């Protein structure tokens, strides 16, 4: 859960739309009067929407290799430890106070647009566990109909003056545009015992992925590693 | 956590883009060759993106009143209990298999576009607790720069043939367009002990909101309630 049973139009707009003829609202219509009961059927569901970046991710990750598949997973990632990252809000003067209060939260949700991804498949092979294809909406694979990412990031500090949120541990590439930031609220977001489908059948959930390329890139290669002569297929997605 | 350190361009595209001149890649360039180390600086961060609805929410909630502010909160909501809702994927034939495996998960994230919301303010007054304004990015208020919602919904069943996910308990209006569905993965998403800033100072986190209108609408009014003669301000946002 997380979001909100949202409240859509402000009352002034409702009145302006005149869902009912003004006459029927009667002379008693006051500022306190509530809008009509059924709003939703008055409006068509849109099929395409335009989103604006509110900021940008600054991250040590410049490419797929060595970037964690989730912010909590750093096996096979650069430095083998969570890295520092930054959320930079853009220069819109309205953002000056928009972060107020965020430093009281341990985590924030960061919703991004994975702008370097193109294309998607309805079925993907997860990078761990048995080689069974799963539907894209049953995985966290990054190639999706809308390449929207969702990451709960640990907040280390908030620089209100410069509109920067410092985070520890992230799974996002440098330069990724940000669509929204929300506080992490355990009563709506935390279900530690929730069943996780095909993932529950994998013993080491934070364990290593199959590597899509061979040999692995130098910064991930152990000194004792011998480069493989035959690589595995690179077709699987992170999940 | 949640999403993925994403893998952006597929290798064929990388090759086509010719980040390095083809000659430098040499005759040994093979299908297994990995892309160059720094991709991100090759691309500008986009400022505006276009999203497509993948489906629509079917919900008993037709207006703000009686709609839970979070899917886990049903005090003051219609029926005073979690309601049944449906996630309908649209008719794109590629979605036929895209849900495969989702019924093994207890919860899914549903990311929507709150299409009936317009406008936003950098500071909002939460509907509970002390009347202290918080930055919009430190609240889950629905009026946001991009009106994107985030809800973890309990899956009751998946109707693969008709591409419908049945859920129990939701905080979304009927007709809301859906942007993405992701499985809930506790190792990346569940932080039950995370501090929640200003919300931690409110004793009853799932307790009642201040009502923005007075008298409250009939379906929320208790029989013994006397309509208030003076209402409170309706300016606060749900959080």
From TrEMBL, chains A, B:
The cross-references to Gene3D superfamilies, in alphabetical order and at most eight, read: YaeB-like
According to the UniProt record, where is the region Disordered? 207-239
Biased-composition ranges, Basic and acidic residues, are 221-239
Q: Domain TsaA-like spans what residues?
A: 51-193
Question: Which InterPro entries does this one have?
Answer: TrmO-like_N, YaeB-like, YaeB-like_sf, YaeB_N_sf
The protein's UniProt keywords, in alphabetical order, are:
S-adenosyl-L-methionine
Domain of life, per lineage:
Eukaryota
Family recorded in the similarity comment: Belongs to the tRNA methyltransferase O family.
Q: What is this protein called?
A: TsaA-like domain-containing protein
Q: Species lineage, top-down?
A: Eukaryota, Rhodophyta, Stylonematophyceae, Stylonematales, Stylonemataceae
């Amino acid at each position: 859960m997380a979001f909100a049973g949202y409240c859509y139009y402000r009352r002034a707009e409702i009145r302006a739309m005149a869902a009912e003829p003004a006459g029927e609202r009667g002379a008693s219509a006051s500022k306190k009067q509530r809008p009509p009961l059924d709003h939703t059927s008055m409006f068509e569901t849109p099929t395409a929407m335009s989103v604006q970046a509110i900021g940008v991710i600054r991250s040590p990750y410049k490419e797929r290799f060595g970037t964690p598949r989730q912010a909590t997973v750093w096996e096979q990632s650069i430095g083998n430890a969570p890295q520092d990252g930054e959320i930079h809000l853009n220069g819109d003067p309205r953002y000056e106070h928009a972060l107020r209060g965020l430093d009281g939260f341990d985590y924030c949700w960061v919703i991004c647009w994975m702008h370097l991804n193109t294309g998607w498949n309805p079925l993907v092979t997860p990078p761990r566990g048995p080689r069974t294809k799963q539907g894209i909406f049953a995985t966290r694979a990054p190639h999706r109909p809308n390449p929207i990412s969702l990451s709960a990031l640990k907040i280390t500090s908030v620089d209100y003056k410069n509109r920067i949120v410092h985070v520890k541990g992230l799974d996002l590439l440098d330069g990724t545009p940000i669509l929204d930031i929300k506080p992490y609220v355990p009563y709506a977001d935390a279900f530690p015992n929730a069943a996780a489908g095909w993932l529950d059948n994998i013993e080491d959930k934070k364990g290593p992925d199959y590597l899509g390329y061979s040999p692995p890139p130098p910064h991930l290669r152990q000194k004792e590693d011998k480069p493989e002569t035959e690589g595995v297929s690179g077709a699987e997605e992170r999940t």
